[in-house]
Amino acid sequence: MEIKRIITAIVLNEHGVLSRISGLFAGRGYNIESLTVAPILETELSRITIATKGDERVLEQILKQLHKLIPVLKVLEDEQIVEQESVLVKFDKKEFLSELSVIFNSYNGKLVEVNDKYAIFMACDNHERINGLLKAIRSYKPKDVARSGILAIESH
């Protein structure tokens, strides 16, 4: 049975770290569903957040392999993190702005730009709720959707 897992790795911010981590996944046939990377303020470290799927055995292997990589200092999993995802959605029809505003507000979102050609909304919520938002707005025929990938931070 496949399980979705969010893994956050704290790594040394050095050349080639991301390619070693992505190579670990590719070399073993593991899929990365989303990947975000950013430096940690005032340190020589970066946070890499990976969303992946697999059965318990595959996920256990991923974690063991991540711990073995030299530049990885810490690996956190679902229970140890708070996660969020952002989405930007563009619409070319402006007659539904008030309806869309109500929908986006219920998903921690808002209207961020509107002009004579399009309207762009954004929302920030957990992955499942972002999926729910995208289902809720499907009938409004979004012109474009850009998702951030999952961001995560240690919860304790």
From TrEMBL:
GO terms for molecular function: acetolactate synthase activity; acetolactate synthase regulator activity. GO terms for biological process: isoleucine biosynthetic process; L-valine biosynthetic process. Keywords: Amino-acid biosynthesis, Branched-chain amino acid biosynthesis, Transferase. The keyword Amino-acid biosynthesis applies. PROSITE patterns: ACT. Transmembrane segments: none annotated. GO terms for cellular component: cytosol. InterPro entries: Acetalactate_synth_ssu, Acetolactate_synth/TF_NikR_C, Acetolactate_synth_ssu_C, ACT-like_dom_sf, ACT_dom, AHAS_ACT, AHAS_small-like_ACT. It is an enzyme of class 2 (transferase). Signal peptide: none annotated. It comes from the Bacteria. Residues 6-80 form the ACT domain. It catalyses: 2 pyruvate + H(+) = (2S)-2-acetolactate + CO2. Pathway: Amino-acid biosynthesis; L-valine biosynthesis; L-valine from pyruvate: step 1/4; Amino-acid biosynthesis; L-isoleucine biosynthesis; L-isoleucine from 2-oxobutanoate: step 1/4. Its EC number is 2.2.1.6. Pfam families: ACT_AHAS_ss (PF22629), ALS_ss_C (PF10369). Belongs to the acetolactate synthase small subunit family. Catalyzes the conversion of 2 pyruvate molecules into acetolactate in the first common step of the biosynthetic pathway of the branched-amino acids such as leucine, isoleucine, and valine. Dimer of large and small chains. This is Acetolactate synthase small subunit. It comes from Helicobacter apodemus.
